[in-house]
Amino acid sequence: MLFAYREGDAKVLPANPYLKQLGCGRQLSIAISDFSKIEMKVGKVVSVEDIPAARKPMYKLIVEFGDGASKQCVAGIKPYYSKDDLLGRLVIAVLNLQPKSVAGVMSECMLLAASNETELSLLKPDKELSLGSKVS
Length: 136
Fold this sequence. Notes:
By secondary structure, the protein is mostly beta strands.
């Protein structure tokens, strides 16, 4: 969960028949001020390593965000991407989540991806942007 909220802060929208048809059901509504707290930036994967101790197939990635800033990320994307596919790839990442230990490795950011039941696709800019470009 990206947002901490107190009882009564979040609004649940009435079921939209179109969304229900798509299997979405009810949607949680958040204020734009909450969304603006998420720091998302363009980064570049500069290192990819296996995590042998992980129960599920995972990589430890180092993602560079420009100006010498980089963060470590643990991602369960190994079934979808090879190391060669990831190295040098531009990605979109959330930078201001609390760090968390995953499979004994500290994860300092989260890559954004779209997925369905069988596929996963990392989000990336459709044009060359400088590292650290803000995503909003």
